[in-house]
Amino acid sequence: MKNLLSEKAVNTIKDILQIELLKRGILAPIKRIEEVESRSGDRYISFETEKFQTTPVIFKSLIVENFNSWIQKIEGGYVVVIKVHYSYEHFGGGSNGCLLFNFQCNVSEDGEYVGDVRIF
């Protein structure tokens, strides 16, 4: 299936997410971001950062990724929503996480222009 968003729009979203992570003191680069299709046929943005650590080290590893995401068709384009999630692995082997922030933007119908960005 053809992507709804252009590579330019996905890269713009990546840049905005990376800046928001930096504002929160997370220096891990986003290593993967892509538009994917779920088994039900819905489209969404999937991404993840490289694994990173804190100082002092309190977890075995940490990663930031999308916990939930969707792309919804609206008049004149698309709404992209990403729930940005912080996941960590304990030294004992378990894992957990929490919501960092929600990201929302509008993308033009041709999939090129990203605007109306909201972080909440």
Keywords:
single chain; 120 residues; mainly beta; 4-stranded antiparallel beta sheet; two-stranded antiparallel ribbon; 1 helix; 52% strand; elongated
Textual characterization of the structure:
- There is one protein chain.
- Helix content is 14%, strand content 52%.
- It has 120 residues and is mainly β.
Sum this structure up briefly:
The chain is mostly beta strands. It has one helix spanning 7-23, and strands at 30-37, 43-49, 61-74, 77-89, 95-108, 114-119. A hairpin with a 5-residue loop joins β4 (77-89) and β5 (95-108).
Order of helices and strands: HEEEEEE
| Helix proportion range | 10-25%
Could you describe the largest sheet, including whether it forms a barrel?
4 strands, antiparallel
Number of helical runs?
A: 1
| Unreliable residue stretches | none
In total, the number of strands is 6
Shape: elongated
The rounded distance between the terminal residues' Cα atoms is 31 Å
Give the helix/strand layout:
Blueprint: H1 7-23, E1 30-37, E2 43-49, E3 61-74, E4 77-89, E5 95-108, E6 114-119
Antiparallel strand pairs: 1-2, 3-4, 4-5, 5-6
